[in-house]
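OP here, attaching both records as promised.
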Amino acid sequence: MGDFIKSLFGGSKPAPAPASNLDSDFPEYDSAPSPSPIYSSPSLSPNPTAAAFPEYNTLPTPVPYTKWYRVWERTSPSDFKNEAVIIPFIILLAAVHIWGRRKNKRKANAWAVAHIPVLEREFASVGFGKSVKEQLGRDSQSDEVPGAGDRDVAAESLMKETTAQEYTTYATGRQNVAFADVRIKLFKRYNPMTLAMEMILSFLFESMRAPKENMEITVHAFDGKEKDLVPVKSKAELDAKDSRFKGLQNSGYDACVWAVVHKEQMKGLRDERYDVSLTATKDHKSLPTWASVMSENAEVTETLLTKELIECVEKAGDEAFEYLIVTDQPIDKPSKLDEANPRKRVILSLRLPSSHQASAYETTIPLFEYCVRLPDILAATAHFRPEVTRRIKSTREEEVKKLKKAGEGEKAEERRLEAEKKKKEMRDTRLKGLSAEEQRKFLEREREKGQKKQEKRMSRKA
């Protein structure tokens, strides 16, 4: 009765005594769970996901540290035989490339240093940037000539590296000269294998020119076209330009092709240049034995071959001089009428000395300066007799007639092709509007006409 009352009011119920006769095959769940192990490392703690998959519920085993991780133990110098050959070869190529480019740059700068005084005296603007005096912070109107050290500093601004073997510069701002381009071509020192191959091929085949180092300046004459070529921005500048050019001597001169050429260069020039192929070659008693004259007329030679020019050619010498050309014709043979328009210019080509010192150009500087001033001489003296001018013009008119005839032939061919195209379009349009039987008859008539034309041609040939 007391136990019943206690159970109504929440009294504790005595725990039943453990049964002593339980089957030993069933586990006892009433006992307290065993404490879970404590892991010192997070990597060794059990994964909750792995509990659901007992086959993955394994602890990571430590990886043994072997000599595989010790490169010095598992390799030997004999394993790097290929690298020992390739890496030094690559380093050698890079060193030769850098040396070759620097050598070419030094030669180009040496040329610029030697010719700065001439260019600065003859032109108002030289190079692609500021002038030498502007770079040195001096007055552009000053007559003070920059020293050798100053020219060394400013040489790089005068030359522009177009390729690793070619440098160019530009000058403008001179009476009778629109502008002048200078191109310096050097050996491919940065690529000795290519240079050696070019030399070998030029030795084996005459058609291939041997590589050489030379300088070529092209002076473009105004030829009386100053008003057309000099740009203006306003009407005031136009009026000032008209008044400035009104008092100047006319810069025009008679067209001609004339040259003083080294005899070793004659054959190559005739093959490569169309303008020189119009001339006849004659030796001149005043010139050295290794030089010759190429001219369209004897009077042109008498006018242009001056005593000063002969002295400059002799001073330049056999090893440096290549050619001096006065021309108004294109280098390549014109294929169109527009390409035959005359463009008067003076071209000088000189070999470069082996030395990269500026003093090595002392013998060629007089000829270089004469070339720049030659448009002045042409404007003053190159006015030939009417008979000579007519002969020179007749040569050019014949070439123009050939171009016109070729152009007319091309136009006639174009018109013929256009007519055939229209005729074919009309035939196709007519054929589409016919029925199948009418199309068959139409094609049969065409085939018969074609066979008759072919028979007539065969009978004519027979």
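Record two, same layout:
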Amino acid sequence: MAPQYPNPNLEVLTDLQSQPLSIIRLSESISSTTPNPTQTQNDNNPQARTSDISASAINNDASDPQPTPTSLAADLSHYRDLFSKLRFSYLEQVTKEKFLRAIVGDPPLIVESSENVELEKQLGEIKAVLKMQKEDVAR
């Protein structure tokens, strides 16, 4: 029989602790989560997530409902920066997770210098091919 907790949040936390944490597994559940109904939102639909600054600016501006090319270019630049930061953060977290799994795993993954030399050689070959492809595209 599972222990009874007076606080429902404590029960949820203990359930979450029984499952192994993984950045990749957690990222899959983000799209399926719904926002907290106690939070207030600006629009009539409490389930809608508003994260688009340009859309809210367009909806609030009754005199000019169409976005201008300048505002679209600024939005595009802004979102490129955000996605670049998000990509870097995601790759950093996945790398940390893989590193920790390699250290803590049974048996621990031990990399020898000969393996590093072989990987560096492969990387050099791949970089040379990439450089040639970039030069072909530039022509």
